[in-house]
Structure formats: structure tokens, C-alpha cells
Write a structure and sequence with these properties.
The chain contains 5 helices and 5 strands. The protein is an alpha+beta fold. Helix 4 crosses helix 5 (about 90-110).
Length: about 140
Amino acid sequence: MPCSCHQSRPTSSSSGSGSAGLTAALAAVHAGKRVIVVGRSDRVGGTAAISGGRIWIPGNPFMREQALRDSPDDALTYLRRLTLGGDEVLLAAFVEEGMATLEFLTEHTRHEDPDYQPRRPARRRPGRARRGDPGLQRGDRTR
């Protein structure tokens, strides 16, 4: 079905409307591209709809503000176990580029950062998880 929301043709596309797809689309828009986001569902969110829209970035400045220690080696150890032996080049790139991505998202989106249970004892604000919000709500219909 042709896109009825824009009269001009996109100059870039993004696969999926989850965290990675929307981040790629946002970066393309800030690079001057007209973007279309394509996904299999008629709802925004992808796997982010399941995870609550959180992004996982090791050693982020919000952790440092709370004196929580982290290292690239610890993050890689965690990811290796989580991915059951994922591609080392991709895992290393994720850890190395995560901070730049977080900085970009912090600058160009609204974000909410309380802990999952903000009224509980020992909560943190900013919280331990980060949630970017490009203006769409999880589960919003796209058509």
C-alpha cells in the first residue's frame, strides 16, 4: 500500500519501528534525509514494546553519577553469555559505540529515566534504565 502520509519520496528507509529502527530513522532525519519506517506490524515498538522501550548502554554517565562501576570487558562478558557466542565484532562495536548513540538520543529526544518502580525504597532518579521517546507511544498505530 502506498504511503499516504507524505507526498514526497523518502531518501532513506528503516526496517522496523523498535529501538534500533527508530534510532536509525532519527539519525537519517538529522542528516537531512526523508525517511520511511517499514515494519511487519501496524504498531510502533518492535521488541521495545516488550522491553518497555529501555536501551541498555554499558558504562553510561547516569551510572557514573550514581557511582556504579562498569567496564567494556564486563559488558562484553555479559553480552557473550546473553547472546550465546554472538559475533565478536558486532558485540565490540555495540559496546564501543553505545555512548555516542546514547548522547545522540539524549540530545535529540525526550527521555524518561525513573527506575521501574519509582515509589519504592532505594529507587534512583535518574534511574538505572534509559528510555528514549521520539514522540510515539509504544503500541501506537502507524496507519
